[in-house]
Design brief:
The protein is of the alpha+beta class and 165 residues long. The chain has a domain of 99 residues: Orthogonal Bundle (Arc Repressor Mutant, subunit A), CATH 1.10.10. The protein has four helices and four strands. The strands form two sheets. A two-stranded antiparallel sheet has the order 1-2. Strands 3-4 form a two-stranded parallel ribbon. A hairpin with a 2-residue loop joins strand 1 and strand 2. Helix 2 crosses helix 3. The longest helix has 12 residues. This is Methylated-DNA--protein-cysteine methyltransferase. It catalyses: a 4-O-methyl-thymidine in DNA + L-cysteinyl-[protein] = a thymidine in DNA + S-methyl-L-cysteinyl-[protein]; a 6-O-methyl-2'-deoxyguanosine in DNA + L-cysteinyl-[protein] = S-methyl-L-cysteinyl-[protein] + a 2'-deoxyguanosine in DNA. InterPro entries: MethylDNA_cys_MeTrfase_AS (IPR001497), MethylDNA_cys_MeTrfase_DNA-bd (IPR014048), MethylDNA_cys_MeTrfase_DNAb (IPR036217), WH-like_DNA-bd_sf (IPR036388). Its EC number is 2.1.1.63.
């Protein structure tokens, strides 16, 4: 991500081309306990861990999904000329969650889908429940079984152009 004064200003991730994988310190980790700060202009991105080019593309696209909207693994995969499973794998490894909002991606059938490794049809894992809480905090509604309650404008399928700040 590009930044001014260590603040997010556009969806661009710096690449770490070193062959050594850095060991993150506790200072490098994102605090997952503050769910309502996703659009916080003062959020300071920690030093980026090593990510693949594909992960870079996925995370950049995630930043284009507005709060209160969702997309599916299939729609995102189509934009990236990839597969839903590959997208899911990148999302599962998202080191920037929830600031890079992987929680805004759900299954095409409307079920909440996985989150940070949890994957069941009904939300039963701690991480899946967290995903529901994040989405509901943005105004997206689900049944008790974890199925999206459809409403006008909730699905996001573009535009996928980079935002101009």
């Amino acid at each position: 991500m590009s930044s001014k004064s260590s603040k997010i200003t556009s969806p661009y991730f710096a690449r770490n081309d070193s062959t050594e994988r850095p060991t993150p310190s506790s200072d490098d980790l994102i605090d997952h306990s503050t769910p309502n700060s996703f659009n916080d202009e003062n959020f300071i991105l920690p030093n980026p861990p090593e990510i693949t080019e594909f992960q870079h593309r996925v995370y950049t696209h995630l930043l284009l999904i507005p709060s209160g909207r969702i997309t599916s693994y299939a729609i995102l995969a189509s934009q990236l000329h990839s597969s839903p499973r590959a997208v899911g794998g990148a999302l599962r490894r998202n080191p920037y969650a929830p600031m890079v909002p992987c929680h805004r991606v759900i299954a095409a059938n409307g079920f909440v889908g996985g989150f940070m490794g949890d994957w069941q049809k009904a939300p039963s894992g701690v991480n899946q429940i967290r995903k529901l809480e994040l989405l509901e905090g943005e105004g997206v509604e689900f049944t008790r079984e974890g199925k999206l309650i459809e409403r006008e404008g909730v699905w996001f399928d573009g535009p996928w152009e980079q935002r101009k700040d």
